[in-house]
Amino acid sequence: MSPTQNVLFIMCDQLRFDYLSCAGHPTLRTPNIDALAARGVRFDRAYAQSPICGPSRMSTYTGRYMRSHGSTQNGVPLRVGEPTLGDHLAEIGVRNVLVGKTHMVADRAGLARLGIDPASEIGVRAAQCGFEPYERDDGLHPDGGYDPAPAYDAYLRAQGFEAENPWEYWANSAEGAQGETLNGWLLVHGDKPARVPAEHSETAYTTSRAIEFIEGAAAAGEPWCLHLSFIKPHWPYIAPAPYHALYGPADVKPAVRSDAERAETAHPIFRAFQQERYAQSFAREEVRQRVIPAYMGLIAQIDDELGRLMRFLDDKGLRDSTLIVFTADHGDYLGDHWLGEKQLFHDVSAKVPLIVVDPAPAADATRGTVSRDLVELIDLAPTFLDWFGAAPKPHVLEGHSLLPLTRASAAGPLRAHAVSEYDYAVDGVRRRLGTQVRDCRLVMITDGRFKLITAPGFRPILFDLDTDPGELTDLGADPAQAETIARLTAALLDWYRGAANRITVSDGWFSDGDAAAEVYDLLLDPGILIGYWDEAELDAEIHKRAAWRAAPQKG
Amino acid sequence: MSPTQNVLFIMCDQLRFDYLSCAGHPTLRTPNIDALAARGVRFDRAYAQSPICGPSRMSTYTGRYMRSHGSTQNGVPLRVGEPTLGDHLAEIGVRNVLVGKTHMVADRAGLARLGIDPASEIGVRAAQCGFEPYERDDGLHPDGGYDPAPAYDAYLRAQGFEAENPWEYWANSAEGAQGETLNGWLLVHGDKPARVPAEHSETAYTTSRAIEFIEGAAAAGEPWCLHLSFIKPHWPYIAPAPYHALYGPADVKPAVRSDAERAETAHPIFRAFQQERYAQSFAREEVRQRVIPAYMGLIAQIDDELGRLMRFLDDKGLRDSTLIVFTADHGDYLGDHWLGEKQLFHDVSAKVPLIVVDPAPAADATRGTVSRDLVELIDLAPTFLDWFGAAPKPHVLEGHSLLPLTRASAAGPLRAHAVSEYDYAVDGVRRRLGTQVRDCRLVMITDGRFKLITAPGFRPILFDLDTDPGELTDLGADPAQAETIARLTAALLDWYRGAANRITVSDGWFSDGDAAAEVYDLLLDPGILIGYWDEAELDAEIHKRAAWRAAPQKG
């Protein structure tokens, strides 16, 4: 590994795959993100391992499916000892640094059980999901809870933006005609500018902090993996000027939805999610027209800030040594399918934008291309390790490096199926349906054409993405689809069975001795003699071992 | 919990369910174990979670399936942080003490990654699978490897049994006519006595150490859970006098096997296991007749030692305060089905003896009965916690307390299916079949009548235990069984989906607030306002909360 190799891992929060101009949005302009796509590969079928922040991020940061890491919902601590990208990078001497959001909750009970001081270096890494928290900010600081003293509040105060709660007063509120505070959480205020000037907003601040980190690390000459993790365009949906007004109702794409989706024949879980407050709100056209322009403005601001960051990287001469990834943790229904938020598995929620800029000359042939390979966010950790030259760890990391795709050197598809999971135990949906907590586990599996969603106690949901790219027709109850459902169900069982649960030893632990084992009983070495009848039989085997040890292949 | 409550958890190694007189063995006499059965409940359908030492024990000691704890084979370290019975008992102030074998291998890499000193109290517990190792002895100390200075060797030396390797020379060798050492590992010597006198053999020594522990703990008045874990009747199959000669070839039950099991139509994995050395040996009648009497002698010795232990408990007045469990980690083919050892899922391998003596008066009605309930070794940890009065932890412990069965208070069956797993990556079978390491995962699921064994890349195996209790007819390729196979396969998917992977929070974490959540949006409390259109809508919800807080149900 060259000491000048780095990774810049950019993640947005709740950014839909189709809200980029390079991904076909009709009016949104994202020239800097488009430029990344032109320099790299844009993956058009990238799935989040869970369509919600915490579990999706825990999968991304561990390289493991939710079924394996067990942090099944926002707020559920990641179990202590679960190996993270940071653990793997630490082994090869690369710093894994955070600027922004992770949604990680420390497993304080587990740390206590193991006697680990949360303030120690190891304790911090375990508590921060493997990151060195150069700047940890999960982006929500309402009066009711969360971090009592976020660094961003201190920054705002230092800039003269005083308030009891600067985050709420300046960055997430607008101002009325009489100077009154207009609550930025409320969707009705989506068309107004946040009080904070754009250059001091969270997106700008986070970008500046990333630049500060890179400046220092570049000066020190150390390799780094920087996770620049924007809080936006996640709610509160309120953008600072001029971004609040860049787009208007005319830029709002028609909602993708049908009356059949609200009919009594629709799937009970789907219908129950439609009854959530956010779904009821986004089902209203008035809400969409007020909020979606703000959402677009927040994306445009991220794009501008990324332009600033890319110019900085170029100025520093880091372009050729830095692998850049741009993605999101999940999407946003924005009223499609009569839903808001995320949680379910339509592409607008579970599919994410993903651009990989691989500066290696071997990747020149793929620059500016769009890949239709089925890829997953758990592929990022193996990609980074591959970039730094580390050996793969398939017994721990359940994804695959994307570099064979950027370098057009893959022998075949990375995988036959992508999987995403969601646990609705936390949602009103559970109470509405009377489901037991343990039965709230939804699993989606797709082969790229069909998408099957399974739910204990309910019939499956099935979409045919080829004939129905809008996912408006649920084929889960169609007898003609029984074979497809059985095929994907069998694939799901294979997926469960293939879980990387044996994380303490590699596959090589079993197979490294195969050549010798073809010749003699390896248990002779520790003296464990199983099934030998008599001395003659044992001696014969000992002679085979001696012959093996004397043979040239030994050395 | 009364401070006088205790658990005596006795485990034999490789003891078949049917090698007890109370379980119907025609000539073997086990009066002391039979007496336990008469005092308690004998479970006739108890399954080990893996038919091999290490994984079976890791499941028993964690209360979790192999798919969850990930220690898939002997020698594979149990990942640090995996919660154990010892962790749960520590929370309620009960010592979890080991005398004998666990087969635990510490996750040294994991301990190092988390900065845990393996010599610290927490480090020892993590390294010893949750046990306080009063006496840890895994029972195999050949010259080739393992512990360089077992306590049992020191004991033998102190008794005057000197040798370079006392364990091997005295306890696991016989002596020839000329005084020469006859290797006790070799099956041909199964009919000879071990050099060591019975009262200084491993079984007697282990029992004495248990008595010493109980003596001290009883004097201190502290509650304890003692795992008395015998190494026998596991190989080396050599018993001290007089146990070597208690039984002879006439006591050897005919092998249960058929020619069809060796035919080319037999399942490839089954056939490949038949080619292992131990299987080839035990397929020979000469071997069975030499070894099985020794195996029976080792069991008879355990029975005698348990008689001594039970008299001690009675003398100490501990009978009424001690829950006693007698079981094994798996069985032994002993030539049945042309196999030796264990690994596969016929009842002689995967089913285990299980007796639970519950001294509570509530259990009087079930004393001396035989239960046909489907139970599993993962039920023991929840049973012990229940006995000590601890709350159940279904989000971590995947088994169920057996006390509702001993007390005849269960509302219904504990479970509809039992599951056992085996990873044959370590076996010659893998190389013989050319299977990839990752595809060596066998899973057995049974509903008590049918037993389905699934193997990636191969057709399933199916037995009907009602019509074919000897498991001689594999129905896995029978088209008439397609529906049964589909039904059990669906149950297997449910089993995978229901894994207790979310170990950091309980189900109550999701549902404790349900009554309030019926009334108002609980996210108001931390100030997270999702989907509200305007101030009026928000105010309405805030009023609902105020009403809830003022209502009498609040207090």
Automatic annotation (TrEMBL), chains A, B:
Organism taxonomic ancestry: Bacteria, Pseudomonadati, Pseudomonadota, Alphaproteobacteria, Rhodobacterales
Pfam families: Sulfatase (PF00884)
Keyword Phosphoprotein applies: no
Protein's recorded name: Arylsulfatase A-like enzyme
Gene3D superfamilies with a match to the protein in the record: Alkaline Phosphatase, subunit A
Residues in the signal sequence: none
InterPro entries named among the record's database cross-references: Alkaline_phosphatase_core_sf, Sulfatase_N
One term of GO molecular function: sulfuric ester hydrolase activity
Domain Sulfatase N-terminal: 5-390
CDD domains for the chain: PMH (cd16028)
